[in-house]
UniProtKB/TrEMBL annotation:
<keyword id="KW-0874">Quinone</keyword>
<feature type="region of interest" description="Disordered">
    <location>
        <begin position="1"/>
        <end position="30"/>
    </location>
</feature>
<comment type="function">
    <text>NDH-1 shuttles electrons from NADH, via FMN and iron-sulfur (Fe-S) centers, to quinones in the respiratory chain.</text>
</comment>
<dbReference type="GO" id="GO:0008137">
    <property type="term" value="F:NADH dehydrogenase (ubiquinone) activity"/>
</dbReference>
<dbReference type="InterPro" id="IPR020396">
    <property type="entry name" value="NADH_UbQ_OxRdtase_CS"/>
</dbReference>
<dbReference type="Pfam" id="PF00329">
    <property type="entry name" value="Complex1_30kDa"/>
</dbReference>
<feature type="compositionally biased region" description="Basic and acidic residues">
    <location>
        <begin position="1"/>
        <end position="20"/>
    </location>
</feature>
<dbReference type="InterPro" id="IPR037232">
    <property type="entry name" value="NADH_quin_OxRdtase_su_C/D-like"/>
</dbReference>
<keyword id="KW-1278">Translocase</keyword>
<dbReference type="InterPro" id="IPR001268">
    <property type="entry name" value="NADH_UbQ_OxRdtase_30kDa_su"/>
</dbReference>
<comment type="similarity">
    <text>Belongs to the complex I 30 kDa subunit family.</text>
</comment>
<keyword id="KW-0520">NAD</keyword>
<dbReference type="GO" id="GO:0048038">
    <property type="term" value="F:quinone binding"/>
</dbReference>
<protein>
    <recommendedName>
        <fullName>NADH-quinone oxidoreductase</fullName>
        <ecNumber>7.1.1.-</ecNumber>
    </recommendedName>
</protein>
<feature type="domain" description="NADH:ubiquinone oxidoreductase 30kDa subunit">
    <location>
        <begin position="67"/>
        <end position="184"/>
    </location>
</feature>
<keyword id="KW-0813">Transport</keyword>
<dbReference type="GO" id="GO:0016651">
    <property type="term" value="F:oxidoreductase activity, acting on NAD(P)H"/>
</dbReference>
Length: 185
């Protein structure tokens, strides 16, 4: 077809553009909302009683309020969680230790029947001369856990009523859960 025989181009009327629909906000997971409220409540209680200086961190870990306490304030803050009437974290669920190469962290999980939920409390110690004050006087059930952490990670717990090896023989050298542990043949 030659240019002379082409039909004239007509412009289609512009369709009225619909306003772009705003993307609906993603729904907030109710578990995150609830855990965040719990974390802020607990953090507020600690700060009101002791000030910000006792905390290293307050965060959620898998929907769990997790509060990291400076080592020198460990006993007093754990005792507060247990004895404060509005908190009542009286049930010790577990205690464990982990070597992170730069420091060793001790973790406890406590349950409150008053609030009907758990809190994770952590503290840290340098690897050299690792030491964390014992909370066995507050929770006798953590006696063996502190001894196990002492035995396997080398963390001393001043104030523990019977700090000695629990799993390894007395003549054992080193702490096998340390990242730098070397098995000697």
């Amino acid at each position: 077809m030659s240019e002379e025989t082409k039909a004239p181009e007509t412009k289609a009327p512009e369709a009225t553009k619909a306003p772009e629909a705003e993307a609906a906000p993603e729904p907030v997971d109710p578990r995150i909302e609830q855990a965040t409220e719990r974390l802020e409540f607990l953090r507020g209680k600690v700060v009101a009683k002791f000030g910000e200086d006792v905390l290293e961190a307050a965060e959620l870990k898998q929907f769990q309020p997790t509060i990291t306490i400076k080592n020198q304030h460990w006993v007093e803050v754990v005792e507060f969680f247990k004895t404060e009437a509005t908190l009542g974290f009286v049930y010790p669920e577990l205690m464990a230790g982990t070597d992170y190469k730069d420091y060793i962290e001790v973790y406890v999980l406590l349950h409150s029947f008053t609030l009907d939920y758990d809190v994770s409390l952590k503290t840290r110690t340098p690897r050299e001369n690792a030491s964390i004050p014992s909370i066995t006087p507050l929770f006798a059930g953590f006696n063996w856990e502190e001894r196990e952490i002492f035995d396997l990670l080398g963390v001393n717990f001043p104030g523990h009523p019977d700090m000695r090896r629990i799993m390894l023989e007395d003549h054992w050298v080193g702490h096998p859960l340390r990242k730098d542990y070397v098995v000697e043949n």
